[in-house]
């Protein structure tokens, strides 16, 4: 140390002595560098996990908001169609909303948020934006019960919009569709024929869509054809409906 301090020529000796010591210096410093790198990797990994979780949460939130916007847009389009349909109804109308759906098997009934305080009466026809839904069968002060047209206890007088053939359409308890009763096999009824209310019986106004023919079966052992209709109204999805006071019953 004294020589190294006093003599400048000893610098070369010191440089030569540092060469064999370098491996030991690297060996001593390696664990420190390894631990520092490991801490950095773990910290980065932890940050990436947190960031990934946050991005997933944000994505889920945005997806739910998008679904809500789609639902609002769909409801808005339906309300526009309902408003357009209401302009074609002859008579007083009132827009109502479904509160609940009857969950019993083979029973197709719904509860509305309108009752006697809104002048709702038993037998009143109920429509939606695309066709006839049913009629009121029970009325309370604030709510009322509606029998849908595809309920097995329902019957509605209809006629073919193409040629005027009349029949009675009843609900089918198994398929949820409607069936035309006592139609001869020789009757001029084709697939995709549209049946509308005939106005007979006094329960429904005339001329509103009831259903479209989706199946015609003619059994050799029966004198009547088995004809099924797909209801025009959205019985399984409509939330807003029209209560109608048409001129005949006003």
Q: Please state roughly what percent of the residues sit in beta strands, choosing from under 5%, 5-15%, 15-25%, 25-35%, 35-45% or over 45%.
A: 25-35%
The number of distinct β-strands equals: 12
What is the correct CATH architecture of the largest domain? Beta Barrel
Strand order across the biggest sheet? Answer: 1-2-5-4-3-12
CATH class of the largest domain: Mainly Beta
For this structure, the CATH topology of the largest domain is Thrombin, subunit H
| Poorly predicted tracts of residues | none
Q: Count up the domains.
A: 2
Helix content: 25-40%
Please, could you describe this protein's structure?
The protein is built from 2 helices and 12 strands. It has 250 residues and is α+β, with helices and mostly antiparallel strands. It folds into 2 domains: 1-88; 91-250, Rod shape-determining protein MreC, domain 1 (Thrombin, subunit H, Beta Barrel), CATH 2.40.10. The longest helix is centred in the N-terminal third of the chain and has 78 residues, at 11-88. The model has no long low-confidence stretch (mean pLDDT 79).
List keywords for this structure.
6-stranded antiparallel barrel; 2 domains; 2 helices; 250 residues; alpha+beta; elongated; 6-stranded antiparallel beta barrel; Thrombin, subunit H
Question: What does the secondary structure layout of this molecule look like, with pairings?
Answer:
Elements: H1 2-6, H2 11-88, E1 92-101, E2 109-112, E3 125-127, E4 132-139, E5 144-148, E6 155-160, E7 166-171, E8 178-184, E9 194-197, E10 209-217, E11 224-231, E12 240-245
Antiparallel strand pairs: 1-2, 1-12, 2-5, 3-4, 3-12, 4-5, 6-7, 6-9, 7-8, 8-11, 9-10, 10-11
């Amino acid at each position: 140390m004294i020589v190294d301090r006093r003599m400048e020529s000893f610098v070369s000796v010191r440089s030569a002595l540092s060469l064999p010591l370098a491996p030991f210096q690297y060996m001593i410093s390696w664990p420190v560098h390894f631990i520092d790198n490991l801490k950095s990797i773990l910290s980065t990994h932890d940050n990436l996990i947190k960031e990934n979780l946050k991005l997933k949460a944000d994505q889920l939130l945005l997806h739910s908001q998008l679904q809500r916007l789609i639902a609002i847009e769909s409801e808005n389009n339906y309300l526009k169609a309902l408003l357009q349909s209401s302009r074609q109804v002859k008579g007083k109308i009132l827009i109502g909303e479904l509160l609940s759906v009857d969950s019993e098997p083979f029973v197709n009934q719904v509860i509305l948020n309108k009752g006697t305080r809104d002048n709702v009466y038993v037998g009143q026809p109920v429509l939606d934006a695309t066709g006839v839904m049913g009629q009121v069968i029970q009325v309370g002060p604030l709510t009322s019960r509606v029998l849908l047209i595809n309920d097995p206890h329902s019957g509605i007088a209809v006629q073919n919009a193409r040629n005027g053939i009349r029949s009675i359409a009843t609900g089918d308890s198994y398929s949820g569709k409607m069936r035309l009763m006592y139609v001869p096999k020789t009757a001029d009824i084709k697939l995709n024929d549209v049946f509308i209310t005939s106005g007979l019986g006094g329960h429904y106004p005339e001329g509103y869509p009831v259903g479209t023919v989706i199946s015609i079966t003619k059994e050799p052992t029966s004198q009547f054809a088995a004809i099924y209709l797909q209801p025009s109204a959205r019985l399984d999805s409509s939330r807003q409906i029209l209560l109608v006071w048409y001129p005949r019953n006003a």
